[in-house]
TrEMBL record, chains A, B:
<protein>
    <submittedName>
        <fullName>N-carbamoyl-D-amino acid hydrolase, putative</fullName>
        <ecNumber>3.5.1.77</ecNumber>
    </submittedName>
</protein>
<dbReference type="GO" id="GO:0047417">
    <property type="term" value="F:N-carbamoyl-D-amino acid hydrolase activity"/>
</dbReference>
<dbReference type="InterPro" id="IPR003010">
    <property type="entry name" value="C-N_Hydrolase"/>
</dbReference>
<dbReference type="InterPro" id="IPR050345">
    <property type="entry name" value="Aliph_Amidase/BUP"/>
</dbReference>
<feature type="domain" description="CN hydrolase">
    <location>
        <begin position="1"/>
        <end position="271"/>
    </location>
</feature>
<dbReference type="Pfam" id="PF00795">
    <property type="entry name" value="CN_hydrolase"/>
</dbReference>
<keyword id="KW-0378">Hydrolase</keyword>
<dbReference type="InterPro" id="IPR036526">
    <property type="entry name" value="C-N_Hydrolase_sf"/>
</dbReference>
Length: 305, 305
């Protein structure tokens, strides 16, 4: 499978959604020329990463959300997918009929049809307004916890799982999808280079991003493709390092810029089988009777022995 | 905490257990001089990695096992711990009164007293005799699956978890211990550099070893210290790269040889708190209602959506 990642550089407050769609379509063309059958775009791709801003006014908030997908503004992306025969993953802020907000991603096939939806489960940040921080991280205010689980969807003879941003740091994310025979996990992210909670060395944001992708790809025998929105959005810097990771745990492609950039590999999905049949042959080696705390506890508690 | 790893070079078939104990005691002295309060020794430390050999005769098999710990041969190690005031972790083949074999590790305090025991849960390899392979990997023949769970033990004002070798590649291992507030996970391993099941590039054995330690240390906000038995045991080569990993996911010490070698760091256990209180604040962010497949399924199955 020709597997591409379309990393987006900064989307500033003043940038229109239509202008972003244009950039996405241009990257889809680029990816197609380089042999891609599928391209992964970022989380909340159509707008700036708005959870960094405190907003009270519902109309102001809702301008960042989509109540239909596709819609007039995003339709050209779906048209391009159908014209080029390229499937894609993209993230956006979804507003339901019941006025519930989700941090959502969709899987679109090469006819431009939506075949899978995921709503982010591991929402980072906080819901309250913090005063002593350089910016907010209000995902817990603007979004509800995803209610669709970690689904796995058949597309182009491959089993796709989806997750979003912070989900990629939680091993449960990948494991639940691997237990449904996922062969590839696709995700988008917006990761500020500054941690507002403690003085985390900036390099760690990239280090921990990459080792999370690598170890979880390996430990589940699947491909992982991750697309950043990055660079400086109105002065707020986010990391790049979009990457495609093989089931060996190795990074086989990585972006070098913090701007719009396409990376593309020929991904041999059968490579994962070597891991799933031997070292990670789940049915031979897993011992769920010893994993119970994973579902019985939410937070950490006392030793049980 | 002064945290050391005592890596063992090869232990050949002809090497006596007493000679190995001497090497372990020498490394404990070295570690003490370098400020260690605790030292991690390898899996099945007292003998060669005997699961590579097919044996039918019970007496022949049992010479690799210990039916008491400590015993006459291993007592000098416990005496040295008490004399130096250094705690340790070590792995050995345990034979119970009921004649059951386990791949076992113990936690010993600085008075030389055993304060915790773990029996390996993720046993790799096979129980049958394979003909077309360069050597056997008979852990499933010689050992039963551990029956003690992934316990967490208080020692030197720190909460220790233990695992063994292949366990380190399974994210469930660390998560179950982190949910019991583990601050440090210690482990030993014997990892052949050749994969008998497929033509795995040799470098991957080390790559996947390290990314597993790194990502799981980070994703659980804990220290990981891992000790190899390595080098060429009667012609059978095993990887080194014993390592100490911080809760940042960074390797802070790593062996350079494939011989007896001590590495030692001053490990700030409170570093993990920064992760456990923010990005990995389990009680705020985990969603066990979406993790159920982890305990409901052993092997991989069909998508549930």
């Amino acid at each position: 499978m020709g597997l591409a990642v379309g990393q987006l550089g900064a989307v500033n407050l003043q940038d229109s959604k239509a202008s972003v769609v244009k950039r996405l379509v241009a990257m889809m063309h680029d990816a197609k020329k380089r042999g891609a059958d599928f391209i992964v775009f970022p989380e909340l791709a159509f707008t700036t990463f708005f959870p960094r801003y405190w907003m009270d006014n519902e109309d102001e908030i809702h301008q960042y959300f989509e109540s239909a997908m596709p819609n007039d503004v995003t339709q050209p992306l779906f048209d391009a997918a159908a014209a080029l025969g390229v499937g894609f993953y993209i993230g956006y802020a979804e507003l339901t009929e019941d006025n519930i907000g989700y941090n959502t991603a969709i899987l679109v096939n090469k006819s431009g049809k939506i075949v899978g939806k995921y709503r982010k489960i591991h929402l980072p940040g906080h819901a309250d307004r913090k005063e002593s921080v350089p910016f907010q991280h209000l995902e817990k205010k603007y979004f509800s916890v995803g209610d669709l689980g970690f689904g796995v969807f058949e597309l182009m003879d491959a089993k796709f799982g989806m997750c979003i941003c912070n989900d990629r740091r939680w091993p449960e994310t990948y494991r639940v999808m691997a237990l449904q025979s996922a062969e590839i996990v696709v995700l988008g992210y917006n990761t500020p280079s500054v941690n507002i909670h403690w003085n985390e060395p900036v390099h760690l944001r990239t280090t921990t991003h990459l080792i999370s992708l690598q170890a979880n790809a390996y430990q589940n025998g699947l491909w992982v493709a991750a697309a950043a929105k990055c660079g400086s959005e109105d002065g707020h810097h986010m990391i790049g390092s979009s990457a495609i990771v093989a089931p060996t745990g190795e990074i086989v492609a990585r972006t070098l810029t913090e701007e719009d950039e396409v990376i593309c590999v020929q991904a041999d999905l059968s490579l994962g089988e070597l891991f799933r049949q031997h070292v990670f042959n789940f049915s031979k080696h897993r011992r769920p009777e010893h994993y119970k705390l994973i579902v019985e506890r939410t937070g950490a508690g006392n030793p049980i022995n």
